Amino acid sequence: MQTPLVTVDWLHSHLSDPDLVILDATQAGKKADHEGLQLPGARHFDFKRTFADRENELPNMLPSPEAFATEAQKLGISNTSKIVVYDRLGVYSSPRVWWMFRTMGHDQVVVLDGGLPEWVRCGYEVEPVQRYDSLPGSFATVFNPDLVKGIQDVYQNLSGKKALVVDARSAGRFEGIAPEPRAGLSSGHIPDSKNLPFPDVLRDGKFKPKAELLGLFQTLDLGDQPLIFSCGSGITACILYVASELVLSNEKAVYDGSWTEWAQDEKAPIVGGASE
Questions:
Q1: How do residues 78-105 score in pLDDT, each as one tens digit?
Q2: Same CATH fold, 146-264 and 5-143?
Q3: Kind and range of the H or E run holding 255
Q4: What percent of the chain has pLDDT over 70?
Q5: Taking a C-beta distance cutoff of 8 angstroms, is the pair 15, 125 a contact?
Q6: Which residue out of 231, 235, 240, 243 is catalytically annotated?
Q7: How far is Cα 221 from Cα 80, in angstroms, rounded to an integer?
Q8: Domain ranges in the chain?
Q9: Is 231 assigned a catalytic role?
């Protein structure tokens, strides 16, 4: 599992692997086709509540390694598990879960390209959403701090300029001409950041071919500097992370608090925005 992506054909041919764990990472509240259905044997990964820092007021924040390990064990996950993550929107929240496991030191994890819609389109079997009780796993974390950045890291980068922040939000929100979906937040962007809206790297719920992805990143003039991916609350930033992992060798990380944290900080400079 040396790639961040696998096809539905690959997954279908490996369903009998005893180490395989399929995780449904569909975000609660997001309407999608095939509601009430899941891949055979899938286990639900709730990254907004169960796998989140409950003490943090910001949404979706990465939990402690200890908390993450405990919840992963409840899902029957061990360090030998080969994890395939999907969602019912094609590609949306599954890259976030991929990044979380990578941050916790588990490399045997991939995203199902196209998710449940692609699985259904290819005629593979589905089942009603249900809960599977499994024996507890023995998952242990080896936290990799290089893959996650906090607001102080982004502050320091304003002067050091060692890394480039790439923002996955829409162009309107990035430029400050469209409102943020969260009440009270200004739109705009982090100084010196660049914009690549996450839908630009997708087509029909799947990642675009590598040649097209490389072309998109090349328009940003990234060079070989480290990249910090940001978005509204740390979800779609991970879509860009996966896309870049397919074609770029740059060091990469996610700004976990993303725009929700930055726009609420009174000291944070904002380019192009005004409070709504």
A1: 999 999 999 999 999 999 999 999 999 9
A2: yes
A3: strand 252-255
A4: 97
A5: no
A6: 231
A7: 39
A8: 5-143, 146-264
A9: yes
